[in-house]
Amino acid sequence: MSLTRRKLLHLLGLLGAPTVFLLIFFFGPLVIMLVYSFLTPGIYGGVDWIFSHLNYGRILGWADTRYEKFDPVYLAIFLRSLRLATLTVATSLIVSYPAAFWISRMRPGRRDFAIFLVTLPFFVSLIVRLFAWVLILRPTGFLNQGLMGIGLTSEPIEFLYTDFAVVLGMTYVFIPFMFLPLYSSIEKLDMAQLEASSDLGATRLQTFRKVVLPATMPGIIGGSIITFIPALGNFIVPSVLGGAKVLMIGNLIEQQFLSARNWPFGSALAMMVMTAVLVLLIVQLRLTRRGEHA
Amino acid sequence: MPSHLEIINARKAFRTPEGGRLIALDGISLRLATAEFVTLLGPSGCGKTTLLRTISGFETLDDGDVVIDGIAMTQTPAHRRPVNTVFQRYALFDHMNVARNVGYALEIAGRDKREIRTRVGEMLELVGLTGMEKRSISQLSGGQQQRVALARALAGKPKLLLLDEPLSALDKNLRQKMQHELKTIQRELGIGFVFVTHDQEEALTMSDRIAVLAHGQIQQVEPPSVLYQRPANLFTADFLGESNLLRATLDGSQARLSDGQTFDAPRAAGEATLLLRPESLGFAVPEGPKLSFTGRIRETYYSGKDHQIELETLAFGTIRAVIRANGTVPEIGREVTLHASATGLHLIDEVAP
After folding, report:
1. A211 neighbourhood in chain B, CB within 8 Å
2. How far is it, in rounded angstroms, from Cα A229 to Cα B288?
3. Are A7 and A93 members of one domain?
4. Which end of chain A has the lower number of beta carbons within 10 A, N or C?
5. Nearest partner of A226 among A88, A128, A116, judged by Cα
6. How many helices and strands in chain B, by DSSP H and E?
7. Are A84 and A226 in a shared domain?
8. Which residues does chain B have within 8 Å of residue A214's beta carbon, measured at their own beta carbons?
9. In B193-300, which residue ranges form alpha helices assigned H by DSSP?
10. CATH class belonging to B1-81+199-240
11. Strands (E), chain A
12. Domain ranges within chain B, ordered by starting residue
């Protein structure tokens, strides 16, 4: 189909501004990061324009004994980030799915109120909410006092500065991201289809597996992706609730840019995160394409 | 004939959102013979869909029993009942193709792939969709979706098929075609059909018997012709087809209309209502005893095969008649006389308040 001049102008008018914006403020910085990740760090911060692949070597394992050493800790932190982000996606999914189901069956007035409640945490600063979790989780916090109060434990348990605290905090922060796409796909679910399935002999479990799950899969995939991406790169939650013990890749990148002032290495780490996310998006695209053809 | 489905004194009440009680089923009893096509007919809110859902198991009864082939089903959950449903808006699984939809019951039952494929092929042939296995639901027209829903419900060989206003979304021509096909399929398979509709024509066309429901109660269960010609009460007479309902006073041997005309009615004295169907009235004077109505033509409607006439009479108000279109075309405003034979007239033992 060929576009007429008029249509082309129309399209340009509509898409021109956001395209220019994204080119300058999104694509531009990304290219800078990509270029920096192959340069050598300057002595006083900044970059020297000398090509180097050793920023990636430090992460992935080819060593240069002179300046940059391979240290498996970066890869370990990267894998831990992947693990914690995956756990966060899983727990948010487990919490959000039944909730979305339940809310989608409410009367309209109540339903809108419940959705408002889900988005309510957005109205309070993230930092404040995370410090509230510190008060809950610390050795003298509400949780430990409660547990000792009812006699379940005799000594405080270390909740704070553990993987548990980080996953808990990220789940808490990202639940709305998981909930909303889930809700929109569950709400569209035709209840008559569930009855039809039961009518045709399926138990509740079979109906869930064969009808509900496939029908809501777009919401599950969508919610998982938009939870996973910010969870993977998150550095606020691990720095408040994980302390120095539970570093995530986001903290590492932040340190490289702000404390260590090794911009090329920070860029290389960021590119690693980008690559992981891109791979994930491609997988998602493949999955949804296959879903459409099935 | 052995009874195939038996509903015994079914009762069901719902709570309304305002906190009141809505009685949906008020002591309904109904028997279905093997391979019988029974239609539940009634206005919306009469309880017909609720009754269907108690048979399929989606609603539980407050009291009473549902018995299928001699086995009480009251405690049996929907997925273990030997009945399948064709839903009003089909409720097809839109993430599956036609073949998986039709084969769903067999897939759930764990049959092997080859058997499922054969059965799906048979079912699609039965409903006239041969070769459409791979189509996705969204690619089908409304009529085709209807056929897939039917095939899906029949694939698991149910003892009884329930149909919840399945044709209401189709246009008129397609609906008539499907009515005939449904009837043929039912006769071929030899299983019982319970069909819910609010469309009286549909009910008359397809059913072996029609159960007229109103206010959670069965008004009458009869074959269509009996129901049409000899309705038991005013509701049925009025709901099924057009009718002229005239009050008559009985004296034991004769009935007298309010304008003084009489006809033979050897039954108990009292008040009753005479049912005169519009098509029993005409301009030709019948032989033997007759009833005549003179008045001015107020309105005529032409429908292709006949003219409907509204006659304004002094004694009875509006009298409706239907005459064939190739007869004399009446003019609005003319004074005419319509006649009906006065033999075999049907009286209803009930008078309008």
Report:
1. 93
2. 92
3. no
4. N
5. A88
6. 9, 19
7. yes
8. 95-96
9. 200-206, 224-229, 234-239
10. alpha beta
11. 40-41, 47-48
12. 1-81+199-240, 242-348
Query: Residue B85's closest chain A neighbor by CA?
Result: A199
| Residue A141 forms part of a structural domain | yes
In a domain, A76, yes or no: yes
Q: Which one of B86, B93, B106 would you mutate to disrupt binding with A, by most A Cβ within 10 Å of its Cβ?
A: B93
Nearest-CA distance B97 → chain A (Å): 7
Q: How far apart are CA B337 and CA B292, in angstroms?
A: 7
Residue A41 to residue A80: CA distance in whole angstroms: 26
Mean predicted confidence (pLDDT) in B17-27:
88
A52 lies in some domain: no
Instruction: Say which CATH class B242-348 falls into.
Output: mainly beta
Q: Do A23 and A85 have their domain in common?
A: no
Looking at the structure, tell me whether residues A6 and A121 fall in a common domain.
Answer: no
pLDDT in tens, B56-102: 999 999 999 999 998 999 889 999 999 999 999 899 999 999 999 99
**Considering its fold, how many domains does chain A have in total?**
2
Q: Can you give the residue range of the structural domain that contains A11?
A: 1-36
Q: What is the pLDDT of residue B302?
A: 87
CATH number at residue A188: 1.10.3720.10
A176 backbone φψ class: left, alpha, beta (φ>0; ψ -120 to 50): alpha
Distance from CA of A89 to the nearest CA of B (A): 25
Partner-chain residue, chosen from A196, A203, A294, that has the shortest CB–CB distance to B87: A196
Is there a single domain that holds both residue A274 and residue A141? yes
Are A75 and A216 within one domain? yes
Please indicate whether, in this complex, the C-beta atoms of A202 and B79 are within 8 angstroms of each other: yes
Task: Kindly indicate whether the ipTM for this predicted assembly is greater than 0.95, answering yes or no.
Answer: no
Bridge partner list, B295:
B336
Q: Do A200 and B84 touch (CB under 8 A)?
A: yes
Span A275-288, pLDDT tens digits? 989 998 898 888 77
Do A189 and A261 lie in one domain? The reply is yes
Q: Could A201 and B79 be called an inter-chain contact, meaning their C-beta atoms sit closer than 8 Å?
A: yes
| B92–A193 C-beta distance less than 8 A | yes
Residue A45 lies in a domain: no
Q: Contacts of residue B108 in chain A, CB cutoff 8 Å?
A: 197, 200-202, 206, 210
Determine the Cα–Cα distance for residues B267 and A125; give it in Å rounded to an integer. 87
**Residue in A50, A45, A74 with CA at minimum distance from that of residue A62:** A74
Mutate to test the interface with B, among A199, A213, A292 (most CBs of B within 10 A): A199
Find, in chain A, the residue whose alpha carbon is nearest to that of B109.
A201
Mean pLDDT by groups of 10 residues along chain A of 294 residues: 76 88 93 92 84 87 70 90 95 96 91 92 89 92 90 87 93 94 93 94 95 92 93 92 87 90 92 91 81 51
